[in-house]
Write a structure and sequence with these properties.
Immunoglobulin-like; 4 domains
Length: 543
């Protein structure tokens, strides 16, 4: 059922037809038979739409004949031959409907309404009948349609006519896609064999063991396919003579560049082309989201119409207030010989922050064991297209920054690459010195030694290790230390594991007198790099 350029309505009707045919095989109620009437009405309306569209196309042939008869006449004559054959085949199908209905409901069948059809372009009229499906009386008759189409071999005759019509249309075009579409839409191939291996002819599958209303709907579907194929081929014939080309009266050379900003070492690329346009017609340019509808496009919502300036140009201006990626898209609406056409356009641009990168040239130092933040950027290149690496250790991205973690004292090189126009290019590199974090100093009561009153000293609970005047906020953990002092004539010493001052050490502190000296020595601290450092002795005099 899916072939050619079917409209959404046609696709829906075709799907309903498949469902109803399947339900008939299950011997469902008469409501399903009545549903075929609705499908048939839809097919008839779709066919009428094709006829109206085709009539408009034939009128274009006549209009173009006045402009260039020698160029247009061969294609017009082919188109008129198509109309003659399409009208005749559609008429033959209508006559078969009438013959089946008369056999089922009688010669005066109320569903048949006398009318006249025009065949071809010479005004020849033939009498036939329109069908009012609601007045069909023998919708479920499965014998009489087959009597005409199978026993009297009208089905074979119809198959031959469809094949002749199909082959004629295919001969008028050299486009494989169109030929395939026409062959698929007017296929007379037999259906696949049943599971038990039983084969059916094309005629049997469409006219045998089916109720009369289904056969009538089947014939309406064939009429729709005939008109659909007619529409495809005459549009193709129009395209061959350029009847649907947009006319232009001015030409202008324009230069299109990917960017006006080029990095040193990269190529500058520009496309110089000839733009042709109609200066007497200003297309309507509508900004906003759009969607495809069949062979055309339509806006999602109302959109924003772009005004023209004094020079007759549509200029888009937008205040770049927020950083990010943006898309400029919409439709250019223009009147063509086929009517109003919508041409989609879409372009992306990026808004970035103005920035200046300041790099020290004599203090490029990275420290082992800590997170070294680096700001990395390339002018004119978005951050997501930048790649950075380090010669030793690791370099990873964290938010808007990179974190460097070197592992070996010495030097490390940070290299920067960027994706420019689909190619990865090296943008530069910088050499850094790699050092270990300097040793901290031990502190008690915030002091590194000197005079201290006894009460303050005794109140302390731990020895701390601190980095003074260092740009990183790092913590060192004191792992051990010793307290020693001369009490009386004897030196007393107590060691501690960890940073906390033990009770035994406090006993020494409590026995100190004014002028006495106490030493916090053998202090060891472990840093974030995992190394244990020996810290200087802290010496206090009690005041």
């Amino acid at each position: 059922m899916g072939h050619g350029k079917e409209t959404p309505r046609q696709k829906m009707i075709g799907m309903m037809y498949l469902v109803l045919t399947a339900l008939l095989a299950l011997n469902v109620s008469a409501d399903i038979l009545n549903a075929f009437v609705l499908v048939d009405e839809g097919l008839v309306k779709t066919t009428a739409n094709f006829v109206a569209k085709n009539a408009s196309a034939y009128s274009i042939f006549e209009a173009e004949m006045d402009k260039s008869p020698a160029k247009v006449e061969p294609f017009r004559d082919k188109a008129y031959a198509v109309k003659e054959k399409a009208d005749q085949l559609a008429y033959d199908l209508q006559q078969m409907k009438a013959e089946i209905i008369k056999l089922c409901d009688g010669q005066d069948a109320p569903a048949l309404i006398p009318t006249k059809w025009v065949i071809g372009t010479k005004g020849e009229t033939k009498e036939t009948f329109e069908v009012n499906g609601n007045l069909l009386q023998s919708k479920d008759d499965t014998d009489k349609p087959a009597q005409i189409m199978i026993n009297e071999k009208k089905g074979e005759e119809l198959k031959r006519k469809i094949e002749e019509y199909r082959d004629f249309l295919v001969s008028l075009t050299n486009e494989p896609a169109l030929q395939q579409s026409i062959q698929g839409g007017l296929s007379t191939d037999p259906p696949p064999a049943d599971k038990d291996g039983t084969s059916h002819s094309w005629e049997s599958s469409r006219f045998e063991h089916l109720p009369m209303v289904a056969v009538i709907t089947n014939l309406s579907k064939m009429q729709s396919d005939v008109r659909n194929a007619e529409a495809d081929i005459i549009q193709n014939l129009l395209a061959q003579i350029g009847a649907t080309d947009t006319k232009v009266n001015k030409m202008e050379a324009i230069v299109l560049t990917k960017s006006n900003y080029v990095l040193r070492g990269n190529p500058f690329e520009a496309r110089i082309l000839l733009a042709a346009y109609d200066s007497l017609q200003k297309p309507e340019i509508v900004l906003g989201q759009y969607r495809r509808v069949g062979d055309d496009y339509e806006m999602v919502g109302e959109g924003r119409v772009l005004p023209y300036d004094a020079r007759g140009r549509a200029v888009y201006t937008s205040q770049a207030a927020t950083v990010g990626n943006y898309t400029l898209q919409g439709l250019l609406r223009m009147q063509t010989p086929d009517g109003l056409r919508n041409y989609p356009f879409s372009s992306e641009y990026q808004v970035g922050e103005p920035n200046a990168v300041i790099s020290p040239t004599k203090m490029n130092v990275l420290y082992i064991g800590v997170d070294n933040p680096l700001a990395i950027s390339v002018s004119g290149v978005p951050s997501e297209r930048i790649t950075a690496s380090i010669s030793q250790g690791t370099l990873s991205k964290s938010g808007a920054e990179y974190i460097a973690k070197p592992t070996t004292v010495g030097n490390a090189t940070v290299s920067i690459s960027a994706n420019v126009d689909g190619q990865t290019r090296k943008m530069g590199e910088m050499l850094f010195r790699v050092k270990t974090v300097p040793d901290p100093v031990g502190k008690v009561a915030g002091k590194i030694g000197g005079k201290i009153d006894k009460a303050t000293l005794v109140a302390q609970v731990a020895v701390l290790a601190a980095l003074d005047n260092f740009e990183f906020d790092l913590r060192f953990e004191v792992t051990s230390f010793t307290v020693s002092a001369v009490i009386g004539q004897f030196t007393q010493t107590q060691a501690a594991t960890g940073a906390r001052i033990t009770d035994a050490q406090k006993q020494i502190l409590n026995r100190l007198n004014r002028g006495g000296k106490v030493y916090f020595e053998d202090i060891k601290a472990r840093g974030p790099d995992g190394r244990t450092r020996d810290l200087p002795t802290i010496s206090f005099t009690i005041e």
